[in-house]
Every structure is written in structure tokens, then in C-alpha cells.
Sequence to fold (510 residues):
Amino acid sequence: MVTSETLSPLSIFARTYARIRGAVESVLLGDSLKAKVYRGGAWLGSGSVAEQAARFGRNMILTRLLAPEAFGALAIVLSVNSVIVSFTDIGVREGLVQNPKGGEQHYVDAAWWLGFGRAVLLAAVLFAVAPLVAGFYGNPELTALLRLSTAGIILGGASSPRADIARKEMKFRKVAAIGNIGGICGVVITLILCLVIRDVWALVLGSCAESAARTTLSYVLCPYVPSLRWNKEATRDLLRFSKGLFGLSFLNLIFARADIFVLAKLYSPAVLGLYTMAIYLVQTPTNFIMNVLGQTLMSAFSQIQSDARRTNRILIQVTSLVVMLGLPALAFVFFCGRSLLTLTYSARYGAFTGAMVLASLVALVNVMNGQITLVFYSRGLPNLHRTAVVAMAAAMVLAIYPLAKWLGPLGGQVACLVAVIVGYLFQVRRVRQLTGLGIALYAKSFPIAVLASLSVVALSLSARSFAVLTGPVTNIALGIVGCLVAYILACAIHLKGQVRLSQQPLPGEP
Fold:
């Protein structure tokens, strides 16, 4: 029976407050998979925001302390490191998370020896080939820089495997502390070194210091003492998973770094430095998003790997969120990119606005693609990812050189866009076959996000009619307002759609 008392403002407020409190407590204190994912995302997100803010501030300072040539040389060093490391990636860390027995001591021991042994071997290879790389690029200084960077490879390979078990058990507070605090330590050390040395040596030393900080924290927060015991069964299990991964990291790297290798050969270190810092302004927050989603959803998908219905639902929800956040941000970069580069670095970086805009589009597609990859990995089927990676690598190899010659540095990101779209289409087709994903529901959020993004377009175009509103600061402020309006609209539509989605089965579900 409804009475005046139940309809009073005070009682309505009390019931609303109780419902909100119950929902918050279920997320913060609950044991459900959703609660663990939300809590993990909160820990990883807050830690990563702090780290990325520190990196953003560091880059603002470094671009004023160092010449672009230093960033160009660093890009070559990091890219060569990535090639060496990825060529023999055996997926030990992923294997521990995916394998139901991964938390057992003999699996942990096997993972440490496999990871550390591989790191030492790779460091030796890089030390030997460093003069060849330096000769190819005509920069003798690269020999010593590459050899110094081997310390970072060894330190990274020696980290505690118990940190990966913490990720498997969804103890993301420890995972965030290791990754983000270690990253912030590296940022601080790099800044101090640059104030003293003021050249690329400070950047490479800072990178090694970051690896050292993360490895140290991994043992402090996730204690582990390497054992001389060697369990053949555990090693076989981990390597069995790695068979599907073999070569994938290297092929992925062709997509991710081919532009650096080709542009470094075609253009001066200064041009390469300007290009890399422009696209890193986009790739840095993208890496943050990929890291948070990867850390939380890999564990979540692994726990429901036999439930296609729940897998599809989570994939649709996460992709919808990515699109609704990403498309307004893409519109913001398109209209405000030059202002952002000018204020963040300096006016000379503004010439590479086009590359940054294309890098933003590449990043958006790549984040969506990454969620499908997590579904494959969580089921112990990384081989399903192989076709897409091969297609991406092939497209990149065929496109990068002619586009870089024809379009200049902008061609590097055009090639990346072609490659990532090819790979994404392959991935969508594979996941549909694996889980029965409904494409109509999967793509439903795309037009909604496009419509919401029009608020950014409208504000930015309107501002160009008034000279007083065309300054960098005003331009960025209006772009941010447009994004906020877009997010409010998209959020309202998204939440309404999710209520409907939760009340009906997905196509192909039992």
C-alpha cells in the first residue's frame, strides 16, 4: 500500500541512497567476477593515471631540454630492443595466468627459469649485433647505446613470477604498485639524469632504471626465491601454450615498429624524433588503456572461458565503452591536435599533427582488436590470433615503404591504419566463429558514438568563426567541453541499451 509517508521526499531520498550504497558495496566488497573486474580496473586505472601523468609531464620537460635527434636515437634503440625480445617471445607470463595449475610452485619455478634464461640469451644476441645496426643507420653511437640497453632486458627477465600469479588471482593492487610505481621511479630518474647529461644517454639509462625499479618491487610485493628444481611437466605445459604464441610478438612488432625502422632510414634523426614524440602523445594513454583492459579482462575471460554467452556479453559491453569514449576523443584530436602539440611540446612539433590524428584512429581500432585477442588467449587458443597478425604484418611490409616515400612521415601512420583494419576484420570473423558473436549487437554502439561525437565537431567548427576563440588554450578548452557533452549523451544511451541487452539472450546463445 502506498502512503504519503512512502512518497515523502525524505523516504525517496533514503531508498535511493540505500540502493546506491548497496550497489557501491557490491562492487567494492563483493566476490563476484564483475566486482573483481571493477576493483581491479580501479586499482590499475588509478595507478596508470598517475604514471601516465608523470610521463606526460616528463615529456613536456624533456622536449625543452633535449634536441629531437635524441628522441629519434632512442626510438631506434627501443625498436631494436623490441625486435630482439619479441622474436623469441614464449609467452611464459601469459601461460601462468591462463593455466589452471599456474599458481603451483613448480610452474612458477619453470616460468622464472624460462623467462630469465631467455632474457640473458637475448641480451647476448643484442650485444653482438649492435655494431651491425649502428652501421645500417650510419650512427656509430648506437653501438654503445644498444649494448647499454641490454641491462634492461636482463633486469626485466629476472622479475618475480609471483607478480603474474597476483594478476591471475586478480590481486590488482600489487600489480598496479609494481607496474606504476616502478614506472614513476623510472620517470623521476630519467628527469634527474637529463638535467645532468642532457643527451640520449640519459634516456637509455632511465629506461634501464625503470626495469630495475619494477623488478625490485616485484620481489618486495610478491616475494619469490628461485629454486634449482626443474619440473619437466610444468615446463612442457608452459611451452605447449607458447607454441600458439611463437612468432606472434615478432609479427605484431612489424605492425607496431616498422614505421620507425623505415622512417629512420629515409629521414633525419630530427624528423624521426618529432614524429615519434607526436604519435607517442597518443600512444601513451592508449597503452594505459590497453594495459588496464588486458590485465583485468584476461583474468575475467579466463574464468569464464567455457561460457560463450558471458564472453560475448562482456566483449560487447567493453567494445561499446571503448567506441563511445574513443570516437569523441578522436574528433578532439582532429580539431585540437595542433594546439595540443604546441602547448605540450613546442610549435615545431605541430607540423606532425596529421600523423598524430592518424595514430589516434589506429589506436582506437587497435584497442577494439585487443579485446578480441584476449578472448582467444583466455581460451588457450592464441593460434587463432595468428592469421590476423600475419595479415597485419604482410599489409605493413607491403605498404610502409612506398607510403613513407610518397607521403613522408605521415605515410608511416597511413600504413599502420591499413594494417590494423585488415587485422581487425580477420579477428571479428574468427571470434564470430568461436563464440557465435552477434555482429549487429557488437556494432550497435558505433553509430551512437558517431552521433555523440558531433558535439565536438559542432563546437570546434563554430569556434573558428570567432578569432578570439582560435587560440591554442581556448581551442583545447572547447574541445574538452565538446567531449564532455558527447560522453554524457553516449553514456545515457549506452546505459539504456545495456539494460535492454541484459534482459534478452544474445543471438546463437543457448
Summary: The mean pLDDT is 80. The chain has two domains: 30-246, 249-510. The two ends are 40 Å apart (CA to CA). Residues 26 and 50 are 26 Å apart (CA to CA).
